[in-house]
Amino acid sequence: MSNMESFSLESFSLRDKVAIVTGANQGLGMAFAAALAKAGADLFVPHLTDDVSEVKELVEREGRRVFFSQGDLTDAAYLDKIMPECLRVFGKADILVNNAGAHAFAEFESFRDEDWKKVIDVSLNACYYLGHRAALQMIKQGGGKIINIGSTLSFTADRMCPPYVAAKHAITGLTRSFANELGQYNIQTNGIAPGFFATEVNAELRKDPAFYDRITKRIPAGRWGNPCDLMGLVVFFASHASDYINGWMLGVDGGFLTTL
């Protein structure tokens, strides 16, 4: 009974934690950053594209600090800079959200090797490399949280994107491997698998009524996801409330994967 009496909503607080969120200056990553800031975390944002104004405003509106580091996650020298730079600015790293990814769409017969390599390097290899570096620091600190971003395509497949499907399937395995390796150090590794969310990446696809209607009809919720649909889960996985959850990839898809 004493353990239950000690539980409070403070278990969900991230007050004064430091979270690294890759690619948080756009897309779904921005929702992750905003949610973590609302829960009390400061943000360190490795990013590739230039515009950081919107996420900066979202984080600072919550009274939290945010630091930006621009570079290419496929560049080994840049990967080596991220953790030392975060430690220089904030002194620690409590949470890592491996959000950044890459896409390439083409017919299978003409899919280019260079596009395969780019997607795998960003969507899978960078998650391992940065996750490994973050884990070494978290071991020193006595614990931490690693959150990998998968996809509905972590569990199924679609045409015209073989490296993305392969990378997102592999993220599930990587999450379980990290959970197995790092649980002994009080580091929990879990994954979020978003379903179909209206983003810039799929803007052209959504213009095709046949595709849009086919996907929407398969979603029991009857709609595509909004970024806010992801915010509660990332806070949960980053907080002490999830301390005994390790190695899971949880879909946020409105029920898409429950249907045929």
Automatic annotation (TrEMBL):
Keywords: Oxidoreductase
Entries under PROSITE patterns matching the protein: ADH_SHORT
GO MF assignments: oxidoreductase activity, acting on the CH-OH group of donors, NAD or NADP as acceptor
GO terms, biological process: bile acid metabolic process
Keyword Protein biosynthesis appears in the UniProt entry: no
Pfam families registered for this protein in UniProt: adh_short
Family note: Belongs to the short-chain dehydrogenases/reductases (SDR) family.
Protein name: 2-deoxy-D-gluconate 3-dehydrogenase
Species of origin: Sporobacter termitidis DSM 10068
